[in-house]
Structures are given as structure tokens and as C-alpha cells.
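Entry for the shared binder. Reason: the reviewer on the internal report wants the predicted structure included alongside the sequence.
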Amino acid sequence: MTGKLLIVNSYHPNARYVPMGSFGICDYLEQRGHQAKIFNGALYPPNEQVGRLEQEIRSFQPGAIGLIMQWKEYTDSAIRLSRDLKKLFPQLSIIAGGMTAGYFAQTLLRRYPSIDGVIRGDAEEPLHLLLGGHDWPAIPNLLFSSGDDLQAGEGVYRTDCATLEGMSFAGLDQMIDSQRYLEAIEPVLGFPVFIGRGCIHNCQCCGGSHKAFTEHSGRQRPVFRSTTAVLRDLKRLAGRTGTIYIGFENSPRYLEKLFRLVADDPELSGALALNYGAWGLPGRRLLELYSRAFRFGGRPRPILEISPETAIDIHRPLVRDPALYFSNQQLRDTLDSTREIFGSDLRVELYYSRYHHTHESRDVLEEELAGIHDLHDHLQRRGYDNMVLTNYHLATDVGSHNWDRLMDADGTDGLDTLLRGLGRMGFPAPGRPPMDNLCLYAPPSLDRQTLETHDRLVSWLELLRKQRPSCYFIAARLLGFTTLVDCVRSVIEKRRQSGWGEEVTLVGLSHLLRGLALEVEDEVHRVPAAHQTLVRDLAQLHAGHLDTLAGPPAPEDGGLTTRPLIEEQKLLVTGWDLAAEGFLQRLEQEDHLPPAEPTLNIYCGRRIVSFPRRMEPGFRLFDGSRTVAQVLQEAGADGTLDAAELRDLLIFITRHHATFTC
């Protein structure tokens, strides 16, 4: 007896992927005479998902629905979809599967009648037996409702290497609207290549760790496909897509062999761009093979993902599996190697996260943050513009060690906690920036106020780095990142006490910088007097510029016959020439501060233009009572400016007339 299975992925606003194993299941079933398709609801607007799926079910007439509940982020939408489907097709069996379904199997079945069964662990053979008409009690890995109780099918099924060897995970035609799927995922990371299942490592945060696989899937050891089988899939994919992703690294030697075979294969070498998610720190030999085997030089650049997770060396083996340990210096050496091998043709993304169980105090959080910013500064100084750092909220994966820490305080299996967290995504607590991940766990030693302040600290520093890079880098070089972090946090705390609740915007950044200008003078930070003055000038300079950007644009009229007025708030005198590039260069080359050079700064649209302080009287003649020509004549007559400076002034006025109001 043969049957039909429709594997269904529910809608998610920020993700389009289906688990790699879905394609393998379809292939496994088709080899045994069944028909199988994949419907990916995440490809369509949420208001179209159910309608499209209903049409597909009526057309395909499946004997069962395989409801994907792999990643925790889909849990609530998958449950809602099961209810919608059960109303439309009450006789259709809905079988949930995936890591999250396996972990919450009993609770899902007891609470949601719309889910008829859950497959815990590998699903290939259980689905084959189910479609073949076998009685459910005889199907391994299947848990289902039986009256008022739950019943487990007999036996345990584990996919082995020999089975994986005969399967393909590249059958794109098995997905409905496969071209739409490729168009959705290629700009992200590309099509994931299936190498194996399971893990030998035990990183604290990972829901795919050895410990987690044991709990949600009953898998004690990983299984691999041969490189020959993977190459077959790569050749199938090369005809449909140009971008793939590999993120399976139980054995670096396996990857070296695979990359070498790709490089030596005339059909594959350079045919695909690979985005590579490294679990550990890739060695030089692997990087060189990576450069030989895959396509580089196009846009967007292929991505190498490296996850230090923490900037504190001694914490890394406590956060990640000790077997994957590398030091901060080893990381910097590897980044140098990637630059040497790939130039700017490879984008390197470094992932740091908060909050770990090692973050037991505010001081540790700020040590971490300072270390991240210090590495960013190091890369910037070396010109590594293809390397980016993120400091994101650490997702609390179901079944991970961090999940267990959360459940110790929760006292349940955690499904309600998960669903509440999903409901809050995008709706942050008051005073706290939104989470960029489903971060449910934080060390109990960190109270809510500490977490709120630190979230704002991370966001403000990132905005400062992106929007005022010269201010950020000069201040960091003068203060050091530890002191800069400490000062900005102090400003946030003091302004919160005074009722400051601004969003993380440019207007708020102006206020933050004015607070920083005062904060550096607080003796608690022990900033040298010269550095205090310089950072104060720098912060005030950029705060003033942000204020002018927030105001209405000035009229574009800078002709010689107008009577321009340079507004007072668009002029600022500083004790140093703070032109970013030159000042940073001097800080790099000299062991001491450059000499003071009083400078007149003028806010001009999105630019800050600087002149020698002695030119200030000439600019102040633009008081609205004189034309440009009259000002130039008067300034030249009394010797305020010489002929060359008059010319420069005229050029400035005619090119940057938006600085003036009339």
C-alpha cells in the first residue's frame, strides 16, 4: 500500500527556510512508492497561507500532513495552522515532527487535539509505515493519543549511514513553488547542504547539541553521508542555484576532503558560492581549499560565519564545547589569514551574544562589551572592511543547557514559557530595545534594571559607531573601550533617573553625547585633563551637528547678491583640529596627543567643515546685513583674510550654501 504525504511548514515573518531533512524524507518515501511534497507557508503572505494550503490539499489529496515543528520560532504558528487545518479537514491526520515537536511531544498531544501524533526523532521509516497503512501502535518513534491517554509506537528507529547514503537532499522539485523558495533564500545564505544528523559537541546554548539531540530525538551519535553522496547533490543543485550553505562541522577533516574533491572536480570547481558556518576556528588549510573549490569575486560576497560568542577567553570553553576552544589571539590570526587568502572577496561575520550563564555581574557584561568593541577597532585599523561583528541576544534553544537553567526556575516543560516569549517578540519591555532573538534566559544574578541598562548601552554604542564613526573611534582611542563603555553607561543611568526615555535615535544620540561631554570630567573615570577637554570638544561638536541635522533644511540660496546669515548654532570652536582622518592618523603615529590647534567648525548639511580659528571674524560678518560680496570686500580690507583665504571662503559659500539662512 502506498500513500501521499504533504509536509507543511508554517508562516514566519523573518524566516523562509524549511529543515534540510524535509527533502530527504520526500526522496526516501518516493523511492518506496509513495508521493510526497513540501508546502512552505513562509513563502506567502500570512493572510494567504491557509487558503493556498487548502487548495493544495484538495488538489493533492494527501493521506497525512507532516507538520514541521523543528525550530522553536515556528511553534505558535504551527499550532495555529494545525487548528485551521483540522477545522477544514477533520479526518486528515496531522503528524508533527522536528526537534521542538519531539521535545514537547506529550504536552502538544494533551493540549492540542488538532495534532494527532508526534514523531520523536528520525521520521523516514515511521512515515513510510504510516503511509503504508500500518497500525499506529506498530510504528516506531510515533507518540499519539489513545482515548484519554498517550500511546507510543513499538520500537525505536534511527536512520543510519547506509540509509542516508541512498537518499538525496537536493530534490527541489519536491517543493511547491521551488523557484520562489530559491529566490527567498539565496540572498540570505543559500540552499543548505545536508551532510549528516546529530552532533558530538555540547555547546551550552545550542538546541542541536549532543545533549539536546539525546533528549528530543534519542540520538546518541551523529551519522554522516559520504562525500560521494554529497557531491551528487551538489551537482544537482548547481543546475538550479548558485549559492549553497554548509553548517555541519563534526569533522573538519571531512570538510577538507569534501572541499578538495569539489576543487578537483571540473564540473563543480568554482560553480557554486558557499556560505560557510564554522563551528570552530577554520584552519588555514581548510580556508585555502575553500578558496579553491568555490566561487568568489561576485556580489554579494560569500559569507564565513565564526561564533566566538564571548570576548572573554576564559569564558569561551564554559559557553561553547571545550573541544571547539580558540583564544582571542588565535581568532585575530585566523582573520589575518582570511584577509591574506581572500582579500575582500569573503565577508566574515563574527557572532557574539548576550546573556550567558557566565555573565554574573554588570562588570562582566561591560568587560565583554569592551572586548567586542576593541576587536572591531582592531579590524577597522587594519582596513578589514569585509569583517563585521554582531552582539545579539542569545537565543534560548529548546533542549539546550541554557533551556535547562531556565526550566529549573520555571518548573514545567516550558511550552507556555516558549509561547509567551514568542508572543513578546517585537514588543519589548518598556525602556528596553527589542530583542533580535528569542532570548528567554538570563543569569538570575542580573536584575531587570541591569538588563535594561545593558541593552540600551549596546544599542547606543552601536548607533554611535555607525552614525558618528570619527567621534566613536577618537573617543575610544583616547579613553580606552573600558572607560568609554563605563562613561556611556553612567550617562544612561543618570539620564534615566531624570526621566530620559528616548528611543535609540539620532536625536537621542545628540543628548547622549552632551551627557558624555560632562561625564568624562567626573573624577571617578580618572580621565587625564587633556583627554577630558578633547573628548568634551569632540562630543559637543558631534552633538551640535546632530542637532542641525534634526532641524529643518536651510534654503538653497548662496549667491553673491543675497544677505546670508550663518546661524550661531552652526558654529563651534574646538581646542583641536578634529578632522577625523587626519586626527586618527596622528593618534596612530604618535605616542602623545597632537598639539592643540584652535579650530572653527561649521555644520554644513551632513558635513562638518573646519577652518583655522583666526578665520572666525570673517564668518561672523555673515550676520544677515551684508551680501557675500560685501563681506568679502570688508574682510579683505581690514586684513582679516588674505586673498587665498577669501577665495576659499567664496568657494565654501557657493558650494555649501545650505549652511546659511537668509
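Summary line for the report: The chain has four domains: 4-165, 190-446, 470-548, 552-659.
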